[in-house]
Amino acid sequence: MSTPPAGRPDLQAYWMPFTANRAYKSDPLLLASAAGMHYTTPDGRQILDGIAGLWCVNAGHCHPRIVAAIREQAGRLDYATAFNLGHPAAFELADQLVKLAPENLGHAFFVNSGSEAVDTALKIALAYHRARGEGQRFRFIGRERGYHGVGFGGMSVGGMVANRRTFGANMMPGVDHLPHTHDLARNAFSRGQPAHGAGLADALERIIALHDPSTIAGVIVEPVAGSAGVLVPPVGYLERLRQICDRHGLLLIFDEVITGFGRTGAAFAADTFGVRPDVMTVAKGITCGAVPMGAVLVDRRIYEGCMTGPEQGVEFFHGYTYSGHPLACAAGLAALAVYRDEDLFGRAARLAPVFADALHSLKGAPHVIDIRNIGLMGAVELTPRKDQPTLRALEVFRRCFDRGVLVRTTGDTIALTPPLIIEPAQIDRIITTLRAVLAEVA
Ligand SMILES: Cc1ncc(COP(=O)(O)O)c(C=O)c1O
Questions:
Q1: Complete domains list, the chain, with CATH
Q2: Mutate which of 56, 122, 148, 409 to test ligand 1's pocket (most atoms within 8 Å of Cβ)?
């Protein structure tokens, strides 16, 4: 095994997630520190962060108030179990989250990631139906191209083929999928919500009829599909899903792991689109990415419905050692305070048209076949290279990084989801860089 260059760690032991390990280790990119809108590399180069870390650092990196809150908490109470014990910050954060969320969501269950939030949400749905005597409702309906993390539940309701094929034999049973809403022929270059496709929600009626509504526990969708390349819901689509769920007694679960905390220009995408879910999963921006955390927010009737059995008995046999971890709660409280005091959700809404104009100015650039946007969430879809899907987008990513701009790729789509503190001049820099790189790549 070769010795790493001086000052660089040996890269071999770490099996990196969602990474081409061999390619990465032969040409690694490392980050050493971060502040505000920028990362700094070990050799001192500044990288403008166009993707908020991984759709999570909504108030920018190393926000001083969030850093101070974590430091202070670490020195005062490092850990407390959430099983039959508690600490004030967990209760306070739950209270603040439900006050921020749509009015019907009255309770928060803490987890440590988006994947755990999704699997927990599915279990809550099953527990709720069982508690009210409808334990035969065991099926879930997800959507093609949906991403709900990597637990067995989230993977099963998810619809990203590469994440599923290896584990196919062990998918959760009883899952079906709605068609995705991506429609280049009718909706390419839509600004905001595309006009066509509300009728795709009617596929839910057919799936429900096939399986019998009394067997279905819930429907889970991302209000805006993120990891599949920022697929904005067509006008009227989410409303129809809501109506159909209501008609058949299904719980509607919004996975807001990406869209939560200002990304769409309001606290949650549920607010942006005016559709209330029964259950909402959040993570990422809940702590501004600074400490791992997720939460499941549930409608009051779901919590009340689960509070059955003897008063001394555990009502829901589920939880994690690190549920409501003190450091995560401290980071969460500080992040919410920063979002509020700096009006970052309002800022995202005000910047959204500037972002949309800049993004859509790439129409006509080489390889570009679609541009999509909502709030501070955007995507530029490229034609794939013949027989080499994803490689053109990966080259764009690399060339942008070399010019000091971080973008993300998913398939042949470039995703842009900057921290909500971005300045118009920085939006301009990202787009100018992307334009130049698109002109270079074959
Ligand atoms: C919508 C959605 N759900 C769930 C997850 C999984 O979150 P985590 O990676 O924190 O497990 C993600 C991650 O990107 C996501 O985008």
A1: 21-59+343-440 (3.90.1150.10), 66-341 (3.40.640.10)
A2: 148
Cβ of 222 closer than 6 Å to ligand 1, yes or no, is: yes
- Asked whether the beta carbons of 409 and 396 are under 8 A apart, the reply is yes
CA distance 221 to 192: 18
Q: Which amino acid would we find at residue 194?
A: P
| Cβ 254 under 6 angstroms from ligand 1 | no
Structure tokens at 408: 């993300």
Nearest residue to 280 via CA among 142, 121, 112, 143: 121
Strands 216-221 and 251-255, by their bridges, are: parallel
Q: Whole-model pTM above 0.90?
A: yes
| Number of helices (H), then strands (E), in the chain | 16, 15
Divide the 442 residues of the chain into consecutive groups of 10 and give the mean pLDDT of each group.
78 97 96 98 97 98 98 98 96 98 98 98 98 98 98 97 88 97 98 98 97 98 97 98 98 98 98 98 98 98 96 96 98 99 98 98 98 98 96 97 98 98 98 98 96
Q: Which atom of ligand 1 lies at the shortest distance from residue 284's CA?
A: 10
Distance in angstroms (rounded) separating the CA atoms of residues 235 and 244: 16
Q: Cα–Cα distance between 270 and 276 in angstroms, integer? A: 6
